[in-house]
Amino acid sequence: MPETRTPMTYQTLAKTAAASHAALLALGKSVDDSGLEKALTELVKLRASQINGCAFCLQFHLDRARALGIAAEKLDLVAAWREAGVFSEREMAALAWTETLTRMTDAAGTDDAYAALLDHFTETEALFLTIAVGAINLWNRIGVGLQLPPSFTRPASASAA
């Protein structure tokens, strides 16, 4: 039977791989500084993190999204964004692009997805959105691979059963 390993903490990652951590933060800052709406990029990061199953990133970006004041309906329904009826066309285009790049199952579909993206984004915005999606996918792979536990900013409430 395989041995259970101890998950790494975010603090250990940041300290042990300081230069890599700083590079990842700088990549995220470049997206933040690009002019893309922070609420939009948080939705994108949430969707990619859902697809990739990264609990650490989901918690982190849910906390950031809440702090930005993103409506609870959007946060609750980002996994079903196509059917939800609460997302703008721009948000839906960004979420579709996020799924295309995160899943990468059909590279041939990328051209069509990019063309659809450009109906709602400039080429520069599409570039930075692509960087945001690539960066969160890297963070997700690090978080899942190292089993980074979510860092709760508030205690989990007990459910009434």
Helix and strand topology:
Layout: H1 10-16, H2 18-32, H3 38-52, H4 55-68, H5 72-77, H6 81-84, H7 89-103, H8 110-117, H9 123-145
Plain-language structure description:
The protein is mainly α and 161 residues long. It has a domain at 36-144: Up-down Bundle (AhpD-like), CATH 1.20.1290. It has helices at 10-16, 18-32, 38-52, 55-68, 72-77, 81-84, 89-103, 110-117, 123-145. Helix 1 (10-16) crosses helix 2, helix 3 runs parallel beside helix 7 and helix 7 packs antiparallel against helix 8 (110-117). The longest helix has 23 residues, at 123-145. The N and C termini lie far apart (35 Å).
Outline of the structure:
This protein is mainly alpha-helical and 161 residues long.
Structural class: mainly alpha
Strand percent estimate: under 5%
- Per DSSP, the total helix count is 9
Oligomer: single chain
CATH uppermost class of the domain at 36-144: Mainly Alpha
CATH topology group of the domain at 36-144: AhpD-like
Helix content: 55-70%
Compute the CA-based radius of gyration: 17 Å
Q: Which segments are poorly predicted (pLDDT under 50) over 5 or more consecutive residues?
A: 154-161
CATH superfamily of the domain at 36-144: AhpD-like
Please give the CATH architecture of the domain at 36-144.
Answer: Up-down Bundle
Cα shape: globular
Note the main sheet: none
Question: What is the distance, rounded to the nearest whole angstrom, between the alpha carbons of the first and last residues?
Answer: 35 Å
Q: Return the string of H and E elements.
A: HHHHHHHHH
Number of strands: 0
Give the averaged pLDDT, no decimals. 91
